[in-house]
């Protein structure tokens, strides 16, 4: 696969939680910043969270998710996670991940729907 594989999405109630995973069997994330994005229907893709490469130690979040989402990485598994807590209906979107620089092709993303 020439793109990351996102998983873990689904249907959650407001206030609920989901944990997304971003993996690649072919490309390493270890020496790259990894970013989570989302795209809601009719809207542009927006950056949600970033985690710098190993040793960089910097994490950043969009204001809309600060305090609710946590990005982390497991380098042994070449996987990056996005823990999403206290979900809101406005978090409904397709979530994508990619590395930076040298981004890969975009994957299919994972659908997150927050609804009661």
Give a quick rundown of the structure.
This protein is mostly beta strands and 116 residues long. It contains no helices and ten strands. It has a six-stranded mixed sheet with strand order 2-10-9-4-5-6, with no helix packed on it. It has a four-stranded antiparallel sheet with strand order 1-3-8-7, with no helix packed on it.
Can you describe what's shown?
It is built from no helices and ten strands. It is mostly beta strands and 116 residues long. The strands form two sheets. The protein has a six-stranded mixed sheet, with no helix packed on it. Strands 1-3-8-7 form a four-stranded antiparallel sheet, with no helix packed on it. Strand 7 and strand 8 (79-84) form a beta hairpin. It starts with a strand and ends with a strand. The mean pLDDT is 93.
The SSE order reads: EEEEEEEEEE
What is the C-alpha radius of gyration, as a whole number of Å? 13 Å
Poorly predicted sequence stretches spanning 5 or more consecutive residues? none
User: Tally of extended strands?
Assistant: 10
On the 0 to 100 scale, the average pLDDT is: 93
Strand percentage, roughly? over 45%
| Main β-sheet, spatial strand arrangement | 2-10-9-4-5-6
Q: Structural class per helix/strand content?
A: mainly beta
Kindly, what is the distance between the CA atoms of the first and last residues, rounded to a whole number of angstroms?
Answer: 35 Å
Q: How does the overall form come out from the CA principal axes?
A: globular
